Amino acid sequence: MKLIAMDLDGTLLTKDKRVSDFNRDILNRKSNEGIELVIASGRDLYSIVDLTGCLNVKYHICFNGAKIYKNRELIYSKSMDRGICLDILERAVEMGLNYSATAGKEVHFTKIDPEYVKEYGTNKELEFFHITDGKPLGREFEKMVFVGDAERFKKLRKYVTTKYEKELNIFGSGDGVMDIVNIQCGKGTALKLVAEDIGIDVGQTMAFGDNENDLSMLDTAGCPVIMANAAEELKKTEYKRTVTNDENGVGVFVEKFFER
């Protein structure tokens, strides 16, 4: 294996949102041995770097594959059609769903993690738009995130897949959270692009995940691994298994794998 790609929430991070000392030491040791470490998350670059600054990471796959950074420089970005975004956001508001959506350095939201706003609200590179009148602004968003209950998700998902099946990817990325990106985006596609940039075969990659938005990456990697705390959908697969994120699942598997 020449590359290790890792999801963050529910995978590499503990429940209190940190990289454990054990995982840090194991992964940085592998990095020093020449293995590329890649973070693949639904998060943006700013929060990923803050959470994983202790790791030797060159490539960051953000927004579930809608953006890829190399040495913190953007090397790939794919947005969605402006009209499609506006249509979906308006429908979501009608259904009573909250959302946050990102276009470049603009963050539009009806509801967003207050800790995120507190931490990045003064970031001069970001511009926040709090939508309070129920009228979304049209943009070519890279990612739209919806927050709400399962019944509303089901209705929105049916609407999106029926109308925009050939234009968009839609998947759950956690409890009560649903993401939408361009059909050309996904962690699997992003992993292929990173492997090509490095000059290795994608079969020489290992990937860790725990949720629906990790499936394409797990299907693409040569050695796919799911956490013991993974969503039930992933547990139906034949992927390799490791212990939970709070039990250092990534580091435990990596250490045992390379001891063989």
Automatic annotation (TrEMBL):
Keyword terms: Hydrolase
InterPro entries attached to this UniProt entry: Cof (IPR000150), HAD-like_sf (IPR036412), HAD-SF_hydro_IIB (IPR006379), HAD_sf (IPR023214)
Name of the featured protein: Cof-like hydrolase
Domain of life of the native organism: Bacteria
Lineage of the species this protein comes from: Bacteria, Fusobacteriati, Fusobacteriota, Fusobacteriia, Fusobacteriales
GO cellular component, one term: cytosol
Molecular-function annotations in GO: magnesium ion binding; phosphatase activity
NCBIfam families linked to this entry: Cof-subfamily, HAD-SF-IIB
Pfam families with a match to the protein in the record: Hydrolase_3
